[in-house]
Structure formats: structure tokens, C-alpha cells
Task: structure prediction
Amino acid sequence: MKSKTWIYRQKNDQFVKKARQIGYVNRAAFKLEEIEQKHRIIEKSTEVLELGSSPGGWTQVVVNTNKTVKLTCFDLQDMKIKNDNITFYKLDFLKYNFNNLDKKYDLVLSDIAPNTTGHKSTDHLKISQIVYEIIDRLNIILKINGSFIFKIWKGEEEKEIIKKLKSIFTKVEYFKPKSSRQESSEIFIIAKEFKLNE
Ligand SMILES: C[S@@+](CC[C@H](N)C(=O)[O-])C[C@H]1O[C@@H](n2cnc3c(N)ncnc32)[C@H](O)[C@@H]1O
Result:
């Protein structure tokens, strides 16, 4: 059941209104839209892997930005978006053997949000663990010179994650989209030009 505060905020949120007007399934789509406006990575990608894709706001941005992209999506929940260029796996990505895909991606996206406890540092550690799990798989999923864009909730592990990323990518940047609520601790990290994860 949604709380009264959540319902009030949704009703009055300009991005929720705008999402409805233009047919986005959620306001999350605007976050990736803003990232793409600045970094122009999706438009140059041929193969994209999206982890935590449901209901499909980011997916809409990817397929609208690049009509020829091949997109592979993973989520525990069903997608609301379907398109001939999308292959969807309703799976926990942690349980999937990515060697089976037999291909690598130009771009790996993660908007994964593990179940929250409400305890900030616990939730930060949970999402950080997910990020480390993805980093561990980069050698088999990401092409050399590829990019990795992901969400994290701010906290103590951030420095270690950035340090690790800087050793395997040439460029690593933070991004807080205008469409991300100011009170939210979420931040996006854009890592470009993958070298190798040694
Ligand atoms: C914030 S939502 C993603 C929203 C999506 N980017 C969009 O624009 O519609 C986070 C998603 O992560 C998914 N998720 C959490 N843990 C996961 C896992 N281990 N494997 C796959 N998906 C996971 C959840 O089911 C949830 O749908």
C-alpha cells in the first residue's frame, strides 16, 4: 500500500505529470534522458544491456533514442514495454550465466534497486554489493571502450567503487539529474572507455 505522502508527491510532481503526457511509464525515464543529453552514449551504441529494467522507463529512452539498438533487459518484475529490438529475461541477473549470451555490449545500464530496509547505510551496502557484482562481470559483458552507467545510493562504499572504476575505465563521472528528487540519496555514475578488469 502506498503512503499518503507518496500519493501526494506523485500527484504534484512535474516529472510524473510530464511522463504521463508523453507516454513514459514512469519519471525514471527523464533521468536517463538527461544523462544521454549530456553524454550521447546510447545514440552511438549497437548493443545495450539493461539490468533492473522494469517497468521500462529507461528502456523507452533507449529505444526512442536509437531505433536500431539491440537491447537485452533483465528484471525480476514484468516489463510494460515491448519492442522487436528488446530481449527480456525475467530473472535475477545474479543467477544468470552471461557467458550464455555469447556477446558483449557497448553499454551496460543498471537502475537496479534492491529491496530497501529504510536504514540508510544498510541500503547503501546492499546497492553497493550489486554494483560490485556487476563490476565482477564486466569482462564478460562489456566491450573494450564500452560504458557503464549505474545508480547508487550515496554512502561510505562510494570511494572504493570509484577507485575500482578508475582503475578499469578511462573516465568516471558523477551525475545528479534534475529529475532525481533532491532529497533522494541516489546518484548516477557514468564510467566510459572500459579497459580491462584485472
Ligand atoms: C528503480 S527500478 C528500475 C526502473 C527502470 N529503470 C525504469 O526506468 O522503469 C529497480 C528495479 O530493479 C529490479 N531488481 C532488483 N534486484 C534485481 C536483480 N537482482 N536482478 C534483476 N532486477 C533486479 C527490481 O525488480 C526493479 O524493477
Remarks:
- Residues 38 and 94 are 30 Å apart (CA to CA).
- Residues 26-194 form a domain with the Rossmann fold fold (CATH 3.40.50.150).
